[in-house]
Amino acid sequence: MLYLIELWESVRGFMATGGDVLWLVAISLFLMWVLMLERYLYLNFVFPKERKAVVEKWHAREDKTSWHAHRIREAWLSQAKGQLTARMGIINALVAICPMLGLLGTVTGMIAVFEVMAVQGTGNPRLMAGGISMATIPTMSGMVAALSGVFFSTRLNAKLKVSAEKLQDSLSHH
């Protein structure tokens, strides 16, 4: 329990050093990872059952060659692709927003440095250090958050594409 309290205090200290913008980066990162985790769970646990049901419905059809049958197949594939790629736009937007939030932290940190310089002058580097950390920590955090999101969302997109193609291949049409 003491370890958790110490961990929470160190996180709070880091967040305070980075300024309020760091909380926005953290919220964006948390939301991005929750959505990516949901997509991974959907892909590995829910979609296989849905895929099986669609394939069974297709193979149960007697007519697989008519124009009408092809439109039904395309509609089922389109629905499956839509369900697979749901929320990927939000994930990609959050990946793109993280570095921008980091840059917002840079701007607010530099404003804090300029405020200290205006009030105290340039003779007190200790007071300016707080603003400089408010400028650099959110930038670093935004970039790290975006890099983690880019890597995993790219892998997730590739897996989603492969799953959609496998479904399409399993719905034979002659």
UniProtKB/TrEMBL annotation:
Lineage of source species: Bacteria, Pseudomonadati, Pseudomonadota, Gammaproteobacteria, Alteromonadales
Protein name: MotA/TolQ/ExbB proton channel family protein
Protein location: Cell membrane; Membrane
Annotated ranges, domain MotA/TolQ/ExbB proton channel: 57-168
Key words, A-Z: Cell membrane, Membrane, Protein transport, Transmembrane, Transmembrane helix, Transport
InterPro entries per UniProt: ExbB/TolQ_transport (IPR050790), MotA_ExbB_proton_chnl (IPR002898)
Gene Ontology cellular component terms for the protein in this record: plasma membrane
Main location as per UniProt: membrane
Pfam (any one): MotA_ExbB
